[in-house]
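Ticket #4471: structure output looks truncated?

Reporter: J.K.
Steps to reproduce: submitted the chain below (94 residues) through the standard prediction queue, then opened the result file.
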Amino acid sequence: MNIQRIEPAAVTEEKYTPIPMAPVTSNQVAAVGHDPATNTLAVTFTRGLGHVYHYPDVSAELHAKFVGAESIGKFFGQHIKPLPFKKFPAPKAG
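Returned output as attached by the reporter:
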């Protein structure tokens, strides 16, 4: 059996611009935010190191559908996960 190892995405060197996020009820997604000025979706996950993922070109409408979905994790897998993203280190507390 040939098992393919998937390497984690690299953390970007770009400057991190925080986007306010709100916690969501999901086994997979911890918090979601959206910046309407740049159409950027911000997501953190329940597992992992707390990295913040920014998905550019996500409309306010898609964001609203995402946070209002019956299953946020399923919606993420179907509609958000395939999109390009930038991965930022977890913000430092304080």
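Triage note (M.O.): checked the attachment and the full token line is present. Residues 72-80 form the longest helix (9 residues).
Status: closed, working as intended.
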